[in-house]
Design a protein that fits this description.
Mean pLDDT: 94
Strand content: 25-35%
Radius of gyration: 13 Å
Low-confidence stretches: none
Strand order of the largest sheet: 1-2-3-4-5
Largest sheet: 5 strands, mixed
Structural class: alpha/beta
Length: 112
């Protein structure tokens, strides 16, 4: 798994590549601990697999940021990852965008 963070004045984009599971979740949580608390787009377009521990970590990140008024959205999920998110009811918890570009457009307009 690789995590690449892009910080802009109005938001942060966190791109996750590979698999997010019990073997990589600690690295994800460590990376998230260093994120500035601001509107955040989780780019899952290159995520191949996510486990239930990944779902818990995404939910915890959203809860932590939401407490401080910073929205967290998901963008670019498809295939198995999108299916896992939807079967788990995450479209009720997170705003899901088809692309990072669309998420950035909405978030920078204050619509996130």
């Amino acid at each position: 798994m690789e995590i690449h963070c892009t910080k802009a004045p109005e938001l942060t984009i966190v791109a996750i590549t590979g698999k997010l599971d019990a073997n990589t979740i600690a690295d994800f949580q460590t990376s998230c601990a260093d994120l500035p608390v601001m509107p955040t787009v989780l780019d899952l377009s290159r995520l191949e697999y996510m486990s239930s521990s990944a779902l818990r970590a995404l939910l915890q990140l959203k809860r932590d940021f939401s407490k401080q008024g910073a929205p967290v959205v998901i963008a670019g999920s498809d295939g198995l990852v999108d299916k896992v998110l939807r079967v788990s009811g995450f479209e009720q918890i997170f705003v899901l965008f088809p692309s990072v570009d669309e998420a950035v457009r909405v978030m920078t307009r204050g619509g996130g």
